[in-house]
Amino acid sequence: MQTRWLSAGDVTCWVAEPVDTRAAVIVLPELFGISEHVMEVGRRLASHGYRAVVPDLFHRVPDATALPETDEGRTRGFEILADLSIRDVLGDVEAAIDIATDDATELAGLVGLSVGGYLGFRIVTEVAAPRAVLVYPGWLDTEANPLGDGVRALDRLPDVDGDLLVLVGDADRLVTESARNHVRAAFRGERHRLCVYRSVGHGYLAPHRTAYDPSAAETTWHELLAHLGGTRRRRDRGDSRP
Questions:
Q1: Do 64 and 76 touch, CB atoms closer than 8 A?
Q2: What's the pTM?
Q3: What pLDDT score was predicted for residue 232?
Q4: Is 27 helix (H, G, I), strand (E, B) or coil?
Q5: Which of 14, 23, 81, 199 could, after both became Cys, cross-link 54 (CB 3.0–4.6 A)?
């Protein structure tokens, strides 16, 4: 495996490249940008044969590629997002897809983490992606979203061509029970799936965080890889609870 930074126009992407690439995955990072945790997600995808490409969604702001995981970093992240439009994010993702795919490598799908999961949902209403995995995405059921454009993401569900997998803990302070119920209702009868982990909070996938849950994290990776590989498709229910 090799990792490198590549540019497409104004957009710079971090890329994890396996020795033998079978398909590509776009990874949309958390609020803190392309952090070591996000890179580790990319490296793990690459270890399973995927070319993982992470666009720097904050490239318009100097020195904002990776923000500190502090209150100040969180505030700065939301400030940057509020200055972006969905067209800005869409352009960045399309540039990442240009880097990720070629004649021999197709797009397997998209993985979004937290706010990247929210943005991933919005993106797959605009771009055809076979599958998307959204890990603890917030704001799906509200017009008060980080982009400030008044769009309720779940209202755009009919525009999603691919299969969605949403993974979240039932103790998530951001993706509340009400939000999960709205997602569950929207997914009912559709091809998409909601997976809820008991007694798990926001950020459980990251080993360096207090919310880290090894069991939920490993199950998430199992579900994520199966979904990207197209081996898990449930069309009869919108919810499962490991």
A1: yes
A2: 0.95
A3: 54
A4: strand
A5: 14
